[in-house]
Amino acid sequence: MTTKKIAPSILSADIMNLERDVKIAEQGGADLFHIDIMDGHFVPNMSFSPSVVAGMRRVTDKPLDIHLMMDNPDDYIKAFVEAGADTILVHAESTKHIYRSIDLVKSLGARAGVVVNPGTPLEEVKELFPVIDQILVMTVNPGFGGQKFIPGMTKKIQRLDQLRQTSADDDFEIEVDGGINDETIVQCAKAGADIFVAGSYLYNGQDGFKDRVDTLKKLVED
């Protein structure tokens, strides 16, 4: 059984006190960090550069999960790997040559993953299953934190898990991102997800970061 992992989304952290928030998350039980990279074109928002990833790499040994929400991702993959990324996630919708993007990530020594938006069928990325390490199912429309979970995505996660189990060649982790809290995480875990990205729920809670991580971990392990 795959170990369930909690990945705080840095998009919800205080960028002016990022090192502090990274340490709080580490001490609170975070398994890895999810960093959204947005270019203002692929999604209507902008965030973070390789220098932010490099800064995080200097203050944490936890895996850095880099989510590229940008056009022409191949132009930036090397910079983010060199900055310290452990996993690079590329949107299937952002390039006509997603297989080439995945191959580039792996050639640079990082883990490679593909991202699918809520409206993107799994069939569009099925050929990638044997070569990816991770697939991120967006459970909100990408671009902004704090959005409400799209309920229909649990069926998509479940079908993805079923597809994964039918082939001995498919050995990837299923990650979910968007609207993850103490209610939606249970649905996603039961559907087969392995990695849970949480932002607003972890950083905006009144009961402390560690308490919220502990809550989520208990819910997915029950």
TrEMBL record:
Name listed for the protein in its UniProt record: Ribulose-phosphate 3-epimerase
InterPro entries according to UniProt: Aldolase_TIM, Ribul_P_3_epim, Ribul_P_3_epim-like, RibuloseP-bd_barrel
GO MF terms, alphabetically ordered: D-ribulose-phosphate 3-epimerase activity; metal ion binding
Pfam family, one: Ribul_P_3_epim
Organism the protein comes from: Companilactobacillus allii
Gene3D superfamilies: Aldolase class I
Reaction equations catalysed: D-ribulose 5-phosphate = D-xylulose 5-phosphate
Cofactor remark from the record: Binds 1 divalent metal cation per subunit.
Protein's pathway: Carbohydrate degradation
Binding residue positions for substrate: 9, 67, 143-146, 177-179, 199-200
Family affiliation: Belongs to the ribulose-phosphate 3-epimerase family.
Transmembrane spans: none
